[in-house]
Design a protein that fits this description.
Blueprint lengths: L10 H7 L3 H16 L10 H14 L9 H12 L25 E2 L11 E8 L11 E7 L22 E4 L17 E10 L3 H18 L7 H20 L7 E2 L1 E7 L4 E7 L3 E7 L5 E5 L9 H9 L3 E7 L2 E9 L7 E3 L5 E2 L1 H4 L8 E6 L4 E7 L1 H4 L4 H9 L5 H15 L8 E8 L2
Antiparallel strand pairs: 1-3, 2-4, 2-17, 3-5, 5-6, 5-7, 6-14, 7-8, 8-15, 9-10, 9-16, 11-12, 12-13, 16-17
Length: 436
């Protein structure tokens, strides 16, 4: 919500408008605080709008004089915002990190026995952008099993997938150590995903969001009953946690997320998509030809529903303007000055600046029942998809289906070749191979 409007009239009009003055100012500030408490800049004052609505209300009460509390409205709002917006309960600076609900840490996929893995092999690879300036890998990935319950040391930001952030991990090798079959507990759901951070602190956002999505999903008692709904709620809760923990660092930092919760028992993939990372199925048709079946669609800001929501919140959807010319993809801006935030996606986690102009964290959900000819899935950041089409990626991965770790390496190598010898963006891939 970009504009807080407090309309002040006399007592008779106040009953009609449900309140004004300092109380309304406080309520307006508190409503903004829920999504933008990290920054005083989250509230835009519009005196002209307030005055105009004030005058219109007076026309309905021509014989009455307005109360002299317009200034009080602003004073009340300023008091509530003073010091960077204080918490609704009056304690502490809301721009400072807030404690998070303890959640159980997810169980890394590498710790599962062969029986628990349900005939799924997994390989993950995250390669950092290659340039002379040096770069922090902004991407994170998930390969784990959500765990129910809570844990006091949860939320530390450690990788739920169990491996280092700029790394290669392969799971599912029959020769790998596994827990005894007797000790194995039935595993119903597994979680896989890629989060592509952006901004100076994008890596912090993607790491925290990955950990919290896994934690919230495990804590949701409805997971077995409605995995799709539970996953959607987990993503939104993770976004709230990002605001609480990272506070002011979220203003111009965020992450995409494409997360797949796999029901290992019923062989169903529940997909949550926020942004422009992507998930694709590799299907082997009867004529032995490989087909790329998209599980998600990139959420671009010029998609009709996304653009309508953004414009309703006062945002602008347009390419970047350089030397008077519009260049590149459609992006989201605060106004026609085209200065910030410049996101090339319609939804994201974090990004406080963009949140005020209609960018939302709610994921687009979809579910896919695996067919016998669905042989593998590729989940990857746009570092891969900007260089390879769905068909190119599936065709290459299919040639190495017996070794998913080789497949993800080959995908990164081809991406590098397509980009003239160096990766132009962080490139993260999670590949799942399904046994027939």
């Amino acid at each position: 919500l970009a504009v807080c409007v407090c309309v002040c009239v006399r007592a008779r009009a106040r009953a009609r408008l449900s309140g004004c003055g300092r109380g309304a100012a406080s309520r307006a500030a508190m409503s903004v605080q829920k999504r933008s408490a990290h920054s005083v800049q989250s509230v835009v004052y519009n005196r002209q709008s307030i005055a105009r609505l004030h005058e219109e209300q007076l026309k309905l009460q021509p014989k009455k004089k307005p109360c002299a509390c317009l200034t009080g409205c602003f004073q009340g709002l300023a008091e509530h915002l003073k010091g960077g917006l204080r918490q609704a309960d009056g304690g502490g600076d809301a721009s400072a990190p807030q404690p998070l609900e303890p959640l159980a840490e997810a169980r890394p996929w590498s710790e599962l026995s062969e029986q628990e893995r349900g005939g799924v092999k997994v390989a993950c690879l995250s390669a950092v952008k290659e340039d002379e300036q040096g770069w922090t890998n902004q991407d994170s990935y998930l390969a784990c099993v959500p765990v129910s319950g809570s844990k006091a040391d949860a939320g530390s930001g450690e990788h739920p997938g169990g491996g280092p952030w700029e790394s290669y991990d392969a799971y599912g090798d029959p020769s790998a150590p596994a827990e005894s079959q007797e000790a194995a507990q039935p595993v119903r759901h597994a979680l896989f995903g890629v989060l592509d951070g952006h901004g100076r602190c994008g890596h912090d956002v993607s790491r925290l969001a990955a950990s919290r999505i896994a934690g919230h999903l495990g804590a949701d008692a409805s997971l077995r009953r409605d995995a799709s709904k539970a996953l959607s709620k987990a993503v939104v809760k993770a976004d709230d946690d990002v605001y609480k923990q990272l506070a002011g660092d979220v203003e111009y930092n965020g992450t995409t997320a494409v997360v797949v919760c796999m029901d290992l028992l019923h062989r169903v993939l529940h997909c949550a998509n926020v942004g422009d990372s992507r998930a694709v199925i590799g299907r082997l048709n009867q004529d032995s030809a490989w087909q790329a079946v998209p599980l998600t669609e990139d959420i671009k800001p010029d998609m009709p529903a996304e653009k309508e929501r953004i414009e309703m919140h006062g945002g602008v959807v347009a390419p970047a303007r350089i030397h008077g010319e519009y260049i590149g993809p459609q992006r989201v801006w605060e106004d026609w000055g085209l200065k910030k935030p410049g996101l090339a996606m319609g939804r994201s986690i974090g990004d406080g600046c963009a949140r005020r102009v209609g960018i939302i964290p709610e994921p687009v959900m979809s579910s896919h029942k695996l067919r016998p000819d669905d042989r593998f899935a590729i989940i990857a950041s746009d570092g891969l998809w900007d260089a390879l089409s769905n068909h190119d990626a599936v065709s290459l991965a299919a040639r190495h289906i017996e070794s998913p770790e080789t497949a993800v390496s080959k995908l990164v190598e081809l991406t590098r070749v397509r980009q003239e010898g160096s990766l132009e963006d962080d490139t993260t891939i999670v590949m799942l191979v399904f046994e027939p």
